[in-house]
Amino acid sequence: MNPRSPLPSTARTARTARTAARLRRVAGAACLALALTGLAACSSGSSSTDASGSTDSSTDSSSGQVDLTILAAASLTESFTTLADDFEKAHPDVHVTLSFDSSATLASQALDGAPADLLATADTTTMDSATDALDDAPEIFASNTLTMVVPADNPAGITDFADAVDGDATYVACVETAPCGSLWAAISKEEGVTSQPASLEVDVKSVLQKVTSDEADAGFVYVTDAAAAGDAVQTFTVPGAEDHVTSYPIAPLTQSEHPTLARKFIELVMSAEGQKVLADAGFSAPQG
User: Which of 78, 121, 258, 285 could bond to 103 as cystine, CB 3.0-4.6 Å?
Assistant: First the structure.
């Protein structure tokens, strides 16, 4: 297909469905670190990738194929890659381009008129900030909570939350402007954490990469990202996490060139099939 004008260079691009599968079943920290590093590298490139692995392209006049472009929170990488693949199978004339990044970055891009059809964020606050770019009311399709991960070999010997934040270990979390960082800020305040993260990352995948590459002793990520990491990490409960649930909304954008298809994708996400894909990835049922 012919190259299409790229999405903003900060966007995190989707891997192929096969890559997503590898992310879910990876058996070692080095393998996962390499995969996530690849995702990060793509985010600074000049093109997006569709769900079938082809370079992002505009409508192909010879085949009549159209592009459906979705801006989605980084924590949706695995589940939305699967859903995009399912959508393409059901709509052979469509290929789905997925652009993953922090919710705040994506909301800003949507407001700036980025060529996209849908926005899916990891919290309702960020979605609300993009109201002027929305073509319809957002629908809540999933929820998530924080957990703590350490490298598979756990070199720091961490046994619980207190071990990670007592000042002797190095841990990482999301920047507070990201939904995962907002959750961490609330929980750390409630738990009286006085130590500071070694770094604050732009999104949850960046936090996970720091842990799986042994750059941090621990990290605070979503339950779904811990599940995607598989044997590359050990997981520990975060106290109070169940009281801080983030809800994921999705909405069509005013600049969408394919509003009917955008709504069909939302229908897939909200359907029993879509909810199963999300549940299999570790998401909880929609709340709110």
Answer: 121
The per-residue pLDDT for range 117-168, each reduced to its tens digit, is 999 999 999 999 999 999 999 999 999 999 999 999 999 999 999 999 999 9
pTM across the whole model: 0.79
DSSP string, 110-139: HHTT-S-SEEE-SSHHHHHHTGGGBSS--E
Strands (E), the chain: 12-13, 49-50, 66-73, 94-101, 118-120, 139-144, 146-151, 171-174, 199-201, 218-222, 233-236, 246-252
**Cα distance between residue 94 and residue 163, in whole Å:** 49
pLDDT in tens, 201-250: 999 999 999 999 999 999 999 999 999 999 999 999 999 999 999 999 99
Burial of 285: CB neighbours in 10 Å, binned 0-12, 13-18, 19+? exposed
In the sheet with 146-151, reading across from the earlier edge strand, the strands are: 199-201, 171-174, 218-222, 146-151, 233-236
d(CA 23, CA 26): 5
CA atoms within 13 A on the CB side of 29: 19
Which pair of structure tokens corresponds to residue 91? 């709509």
Q: At 260, list the tokens.
A: 């009917």
For residue 154, how far is the Cα from the chain centroid? 25
- Domain residue extents for the chain: 12-142+248-280, 144-243
CATH class in words for 144-243: alpha beta
Evaluate whether 12-142+248-280 and 144-243 have a shared fold: yes
Nearest Cα to Cα of residue 260 among 35, 65, 68:
68
